[in-house]
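Entry 14. Structure prediction run on the chain below.
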Amino acid sequence: MQSNNYPRARQVLKSLIGGVDPVTGCDLPKDSILNRVDVIRALLSSVDAIEQVTARAARRALLPDGVGQPWTEEEERRLTEAFSNGDAVSILPVLTSEPFEPSRHACNALA
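Output returned:
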Protein backbone atom coordinates (compact mmCIF):
# COMPACT_ATOMS: atom_id res chain seq x y z
CA MET A 1 0.00 0.00 0.00
CA GLN A 2 1.28 3.46 -0.81
CA SER A 3 1.80 5.77 2.13
CA ASN A 4 -0.62 8.34 0.71
CA ASN A 5 -3.39 5.73 1.17
CA TYR A 6 -2.69 5.29 4.89
CA PRO A 7 -4.91 8.12 6.16
CA ARG A 8 -7.94 6.82 4.27
CA ALA A 9 -7.23 3.21 5.27
CA ARG A 10 -6.99 4.30 8.91
CA GLN A 11 -10.26 6.19 8.60
CA VAL A 12 -12.03 3.16 7.08
CA LEU A 13 -10.69 0.83 9.76
CA LYS A 14 -11.71 3.21 12.57
CA SER A 15 -15.23 3.39 11.11
CA LEU A 16 -15.48 -0.40 10.98
CA ILE A 17 -14.17 -0.68 14.54
CA GLY A 18 -16.88 1.77 15.56
CA GLY A 19 -19.53 -0.35 13.86
CA VAL A 20 -20.18 2.18 11.10
CA ASP A 21 -20.21 1.67 7.32
CA PRO A 22 -17.32 3.87 6.12
CA VAL A 23 -19.17 4.81 2.90
CA THR A 24 -22.73 5.45 4.07
CA GLY A 25 -22.09 6.35 7.70
CA CYS A 26 -24.90 4.00 8.74
CA ASP A 27 -24.58 1.62 11.67
CA LEU A 28 -23.58 -1.90 10.73
CA PRO A 29 -25.94 -4.74 11.71
CA LYS A 30 -25.42 -6.01 15.26
CA ASP A 31 -24.84 -9.55 13.97
CA SER A 32 -22.08 -8.41 11.57
CA ILE A 33 -18.83 -10.35 11.54
CA LEU A 34 -17.17 -7.02 12.36
CA ASN A 35 -18.60 -7.22 15.87
CA ARG A 36 -16.62 -10.36 16.71
CA VAL A 37 -13.87 -9.87 19.27
CA ASP A 38 -11.12 -11.41 17.12
CA VAL A 39 -12.09 -9.27 14.13
CA ILE A 40 -12.11 -6.08 16.22
CA ARG A 41 -8.68 -6.97 17.60
CA ALA A 42 -7.36 -7.57 14.07
CA LEU A 43 -8.73 -4.21 12.93
CA LEU A 44 -7.18 -2.47 15.94
CA SER A 45 -3.84 -4.13 15.14
CA SER A 46 -4.12 -2.86 11.58
CA VAL A 47 -4.72 0.69 12.78
CA ASP A 48 -1.73 0.40 15.10
CA ALA A 49 0.47 -0.90 12.26
CA ILE A 50 -0.55 2.00 10.00
CA GLU A 51 0.21 4.49 12.78
CA GLN A 52 3.63 2.94 13.38
CA VAL A 53 4.54 3.02 9.69
CA THR A 54 3.36 6.61 9.41
CA ALA A 55 5.33 7.68 12.50
CA ARG A 56 8.46 5.93 11.22
CA ALA A 57 8.17 7.69 7.84
CA ALA A 58 7.78 11.04 9.62
CA ARG A 59 10.92 10.40 11.70
CA ARG A 60 12.91 9.32 8.65
CA ALA A 61 11.87 12.47 6.79
CA LEU A 62 13.64 14.51 9.49
CA LEU A 63 16.97 12.72 9.02
CA PRO A 64 19.70 14.23 6.84
CA ASP A 65 20.45 12.70 3.44
CA GLY A 66 22.79 9.75 3.48
CA VAL A 67 21.97 8.56 7.00
CA GLY A 68 22.69 4.87 7.25
CA GLN A 69 24.84 4.83 4.13
CA PRO A 70 28.36 3.48 4.48
CA TRP A 71 31.24 5.90 4.10
CA THR A 72 33.17 5.76 0.87
CA GLU A 73 36.77 4.61 0.90
CA GLU A 74 37.82 8.21 0.28
CA GLU A 75 35.80 9.46 3.27
CA GLU A 76 37.27 6.76 5.50
CA ARG A 77 40.78 7.59 4.29
CA ARG A 78 40.26 11.31 4.96
CA LEU A 79 38.82 10.65 8.41
CA THR A 80 41.62 8.25 9.36
CA GLU A 81 44.19 10.77 8.19
CA ALA A 82 42.47 13.61 10.07
CA PHE A 83 42.27 11.47 13.21
CA SER A 84 45.97 10.70 12.97
CA ASN A 85 46.64 14.44 12.76
CA GLY A 86 44.27 15.23 15.64
CA ASP A 87 41.73 16.93 13.34
CA ALA A 88 39.00 14.25 13.18
CA VAL A 89 36.35 16.36 14.91
CA SER A 90 36.87 19.31 12.58
CA ILE A 91 36.63 17.20 9.40
CA LEU A 92 33.46 15.28 10.30
CA PRO A 93 31.04 18.08 9.33
CA VAL A 94 32.80 18.27 5.95
CA LEU A 95 32.40 14.54 5.41
CA THR A 96 28.82 14.32 6.65
CA SER A 97 27.49 17.80 5.74
CA GLU A 98 25.98 17.81 9.23
CA PRO A 99 27.25 18.99 12.62
CA PHE A 100 28.64 15.99 14.43
CA GLU A 101 30.12 15.42 17.86
CA PRO A 102 31.73 11.98 17.94
CA SER A 103 32.28 10.23 21.19
CA ARG A 104 35.82 9.40 22.24
CA HIS A 105 34.94 5.70 21.79
CA ALA A 106 33.98 6.22 18.13
CA CYS A 107 37.24 8.02 17.40
CA ASN A 108 39.27 5.39 19.22
CA ALA A 109 37.67 2.70 17.08
CA LEU A 110 39.15 4.35 14.02
CA ALA A 111 42.70 4.32 15.38
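Residues 3-61 form one domain.
Filed with the rest of this week's runs.
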